Amino acid sequence: MAYDEILYAVKDGVAVVTLNRPDKLNAWTGTMEREVREAMRAASADDAVRVIVLTGAGRGFCAGADMDGLTAIQASGQPRAASGAFDAKADPNFGKTYSYFPSVPKPIIAGINGACAGLGLVIALYADMRFASEKAVFLTAFARRGLIAEHGISWLLPRLVGMANAADLLFSSRRVTAEEAKELGLVNKVFSEGAFEEGVMGYARMLANEVSPRSLREMKREIWAAQFQTLGEAIDTANRDMAGSFVSEDFKEGVAHFLEKRAPAFTGR
To answer: Is 89 left (phi over 0), alpha (psi -120 to 50) or beta?
Structure first.
């Protein structure tokens, strides 16, 4: 499929979705939103894809919403119409315009190569993990635009950095370096600029080739669902899921490759 504002490529079990407006620091548009959703759907349906990396071209990851789009919203006085649910069977919480990443059945890693601001930060927070270049800079931006904590960031951010730190980042809209982001828990890893691409892709390839795709799919569903469960409910869910794991092909292969001391050949079934 041809895209106008993203790039899409698959290699070694990893689908790489690249926001591709480098002259605008990959500012988010309606076209980009639609194309990222289409790419996520393509990756979800492709058995050759086991992990998804979302990153940006050039110096930025995503500098937030495109200002032309914000100007149009200001003129109309209305936000843009919401997109439909990515997966009609998923939890309704994961069916909003930007909250659908948890319903994508494969791990999503945000490879944050540069500026990550406003809506770009929201998008990154919906990924399962975030790896940053040392050159990355983070800011919420909303308070400096006369806006509010948009698109569920008031739910996401405190879960990662705590209530007080979330309030600081939202209220001040101050710039946060990659190292501070790591200290806060906003990102998982920070790589030097020269090691960033291989660091992100090396981890993604490890997930794609060394662990069970079925386990990744089920664990992702369990982790996100648990955000709305009690401990007891999460235990009951795990107990039900375990029964399916014991009769899966990947469980049999997981035991066999360990005993035979060879590389795994998981099928995802």
So the answer is: alpha
> How many angstroms separate the Cα of 221 from the Cα of each of 41, 45, 98, 128, 228?
17, 17, 17, 11, 12
Q: How far is it, in rounded angstroms, from Cα 5 to Cα 36?
A: 9
Helix or strand (DSSP H, E) at 51: strand 51-56
pLDDT tens-digit series, residues 185-244: 999 999 999 999 999 999 999 999 999 999 999 999 999 999 999 999 999 999 999 998
Q: Does domain 6-208 have CATH number 3.20.20.105?
A: no
Torsion angle defined by CA atoms of residues 200, 204, 210 and 213, in that order, rounded to the nearest 10 degrees: 160
Q: What is the side-by-side strand order in the sheet with 108-112?
A: 6-11, 14-19, 51-56, 108-112, 129-133, 189-191
Chain length of the chain: 269
Q: Residue 84: its pLDDT value, please? A: 63
65, 74 Cβ separation under 8 angstroms: no
Highest average pLDDT, of 65-69, 82-86, 224-228, comes from 224-228
- Domain ranges, ordered by start, for the chain: 6-208, 212-259
Known catalytic residues are: 150
- pTM, 2 dp: 0.90
* DSSP-based three-state secondary structure for 42: helix
At 187 the pLDDT is: 98
